[in-house]
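[Q] Does anyone have a clean structure-token version of this?
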Amino acid sequence: MSEAADSIEGAVPARYWHPLDDGRIQCDLCPRECRLHEGQRGLCFVRARSHDALVLTTWGRSSGFCVDPVEKKPLNHFLPGTPILSFGTAGCNLSCRFCQNWDISKSREFDKLADAASPGSIAAAAEQLGCRSVAFTYNDPVIFLEYALDVASACRERGIRSVAVTAGYVSPPAAREFFSGMDAANVDLKAFTERFYQQHCSGRLAPVLDTLAYLVHESACWVEITTLLIPGENDSPSELAALSKWVARELGPHVPLHFTAFHPDWKMTDKPRTPHETLILARRIALEAGLHHVYVGNVHDKARQSTYCHRCGDRVIGRDAYVLSEWRLDDLGRCRRCGTQCPGVFEGPRGNWGARRQPVRLGLSAARP
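[A] Here you go.
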């Protein structure tokens, strides 16, 4: 926990907290359960105690907007080839030493929040820009649950989908509400040992597994998983096999799994970049564990970034980084060769956004809800 800095003007009431007998209040949003005196903030920095209540300090404030390919989230089975309006706020409820968005997720400066927009303005901008969906990304959206759900509601009114890019570190009650507003999620499964989560993230593995099980079995949210492989930390064949077998057994072979390459960043600059061979081995281990759709990321590898029919083996989506080539699915997402349904969300023909990245300034003021 940290002491609140400056004022929290513009903050809005937060959900998921309760008073304690010792005079503190406890935030119940995530497993961290920060206990706050007056004027203190939780580890996430954006949920704070003010006048005996919990408030969210970043409603309507963003660290920036950008139109990305949906494959960058990464989501390979959700409206392929389409543009997605991406944005985040500041702060995070984990402390990953290897964070690759640390300038946003670890920010303690509200001048990082340069763009302000109401939920309706974001939904309107997504529609005007031709985006099929909006992504809550760059930092974990569960910490700005109230704002994210307001945006998701405004988007649904315009037929625009919502996507969460999250570590899944959230309490079960908050998860049920948060993901009810999401159409898809990419969950960052950082490793498959409690040791890694404790030493490198100041968190725990078990709540993340619980979130994944809830998402796949009890929600309507499309789910894909990403694991960033860090040399010597979470890339041993035994750990990769255990992770892959758990996904296949507890979630199902249809859930896509992405293994992505690490580069030195934030507080983990002593580790080398992930060798391409490690990603190839991880993918082979996952396929041998029974998973149908396993991808490598942050490298150039068309063969292992493409999607294959799990029944006949035909390449149904050719993919080179964020650019699509072959497309052998019908408008319902079925293999044109054998008719097998490819799991995911497929509506109509493929998009053609490609690898473009288009920064956006909304230039609009946020209104209080």
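[Q] Thanks! Anything notable?
[A] Residues 4 and 39 are 5 Å apart (CA to CA).
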